[in-house]
User: What shape does this take?
Amino acid sequence: MEFKTLASSPYLEPTGQVSRVMQQVLLALVPGTLAAIWYFGWGVLVNLVLSILFCVAFEALTLKLRGRHPATGLRDYSAVVTAWLLALTLPQLSPWWIVLIGAFFAIVLAKQLYGGLGYNPFNPAMAAYVVLLISFPTYMTHWVAPSPIADATLGLWETLKVILGSQMSHHELFDSLTAATPLDSIRTGLTQHKTIDEIRTAPVFGDMGGLGWEWMANWYAIGGFWLIYKRIIPWQIPLTLILALGVPAGVFYLSNPDHYASPVFHIFSGGVMLGAFFIATDPVSGSTTPAGRILFAAGVGLLTFIIRTWGGYPDAIAFSVLLMNMATPLIDHYTKPRTFGHQRGE
Amino acid sequence: MRLSSFHGGLELPSHKAISTRTPIATLPPPQRVVLPLRQHIGHPAEVLVEVGQQVRKGDKVAAAEGYVSAPLHASISGTVTAIEERDVPHPSGLQALCIEIESDGRDEWTDALPEPTPDYQQLPAVELRNRLREAGIVGLGGAAFPTAVKLNPGDQHPIHTVIINGAECEPYISCDDMLMREQAREILSGVQIIQHILKPTRVLIGIEDNKPEAIAAMQQALASLDNSGIEIIAVPSRYPTGGEKQLIKVLTGQEVPGHGLPADIGITCHNVGTVHAVHEAIINGRPLIERVITVTGQGIEHARNLRARIGTLFSDLTDYCGGYTADASYLLMGGPMMGISLRHDQLPVIKATNCLLVASDAEIRHSGEAAPCIRCGACVDACPVNLLPQQLYWYARANDHDRIQAFDLFDCIECGCCAHVCPSHIPLVQYYRHAKTEIWQLEAQRQKADRARRRHEFRQARLEREKREKAERLARKRAALKRETRSDSSKQQAIQAALERAQARKKQLAAEAAARQSEASDDEAPR
Assistant: This one.
């Protein structure tokens, strides 16, 4: 009897699938995203929808231009993950074209021009975020105040009008809606020679981080724990990142609590949880060796603390990730594990 | 005993139960057998018979060619009907030289068998090794390395630990499991023969803990031996624990050096099937002409283990098991992780055939298009050798032979763990095999080129030398000639000198005469 043949062992059905990995990452983002919508309004959802639409469209277009079948590329859901992460980093009332430029930069420039999924040296969402932050600082630093302390909140329809109509001219409305982020407040307060305790009396602060922010962070972390449980991400990355941020923050906080924010505040503010569980864990642009992953995460955490404390920007997850992306080939080179039966370095 | 562990590995569904429900059945002697000359590691055996020759069961039909090789024996009695290239179960799909024997239906043993030797303790190790070598015994776990070579580690590598591999970690395969359940005594007898040959301080039999019946049977058989120096150890079921280097690590905590052999660290490892064959060869004087094979998978009607003659066609085995089901799509020799995929079933059982897996589509991966590598590192976590499979893949695709070897490509055991867990479904092992083959070919080419270069350089050197020698010869001749001319001139000088002397003498004489004349005239004048 004749049989079908396969070129090479193994022949068992493989256990994982890229699209499943990506779907699970998306699922893990849902609680944090819901928390973001709860605290920061419909703008989060509008950003998310726009970002997914733009990213998927750009992905399909560039794949077609590159002579690939768009469907095969889209089926891995990586564009949706990028879109989702990008959307979560954007201010809630930023105009639609901010999202468009971000999507274009993330998908076309940072991802597809390098060869598409698997070949991009930089995290696409972070690269796009940094480009937007540097190019459009006014838009990118106006965050909506969390709902418990906001003077006014917008309904879905009004939100759509603001975002799609680019109603930035309503300054009065805009100012009543937005507030400085907690990290921003700390930075500004310190330049005014206030102590941390004085700064933290502002309503934007919560128990651990910023009001609303800390809950968003918690829900991101819960999604992240689920990914660890599902063995989608290694636990070492978030833990190392948080320690590398928290330990130096703790040392400085103990040395001068008036001038340095507490490690708990650092960890529960800004993009740390999102970064620790969903961005530093991006396998493509991060280090690929077990020891390298830890070094990578440590670098992100430490750089975040340094830039937040002494640098020019209130938050620094995106910058730190990009800087460590640059260091990845070097890290990979020096962290090759010891092969079975070999001496170290042999 | 404290067990060690190796990095990575996988917990795979075992699929063994479907073939262990019935005892090992003995397949009736087939109508014909096909014996490939190369079914072991090393040189192919050398044919000893001619077409038309009568042979009986156990007759040597091909002799070992060189030290690392193994002879072949007729596995049925009958007539040699062909010595020609035939399809063999090999991944290349190429043909190889085989001896075909047509049965005479009598299945008689030859008279040329060695004496059964239950009191082998009287014999020296070298004699026993030679008997095992003559019995054609090779590793039956799949690698088919000549056992006699393994049992001759040399003086610089004294063996302190013998490991008997009953792990059988690959899914579906159960031939070792069934053999241990049914023939534990014979296996232990084989172990004792190896103990007598190598005189190790300990013997460790490693069996995966998913085979409780086999462990119980072996322990029961062991209980009847006193001071055996043998230990039976249940090891965790984790693929690829049955890999030689992995099992050694688990049982002893020692790592076999990257490019070395277990003997380098005083260890040797033998499969339980091989040990059973050792028992047969020494105690009963029987050469290796049969083995146990698992015939299994959803594509076979009645999955079970068969004791079959070497050279039996696969179709005879599958027929005995009730034939194929409607689902049969793939035929694998070996397990689903490291086996080879075969095009048809008219292929002979060889010494390394431990399993025939007739798989349905549902049991086999769908060879869809691979997605790009996302560097997720799932392969790194699975690799039992602690390699970086994703980097090897990268350099394999880039044809970067230096880098891929710096990442220890040649330490890869091709266990398939990496490809099994790859979410992008990249056939990683295929890339590694391809890269290895390419490097070997380049190496062979380089060696050929080196030889050619050396020949060329030698010729150049010879021509140079000849030219130089010729020049030297000429120079010597010229010098000799010069010397001759120089001696000529000295003659002339002598002549010249003589002439000068003569002339001087003449002048002197003339002067004297003149002086005498003037004297005379002077005398005359005053006078």
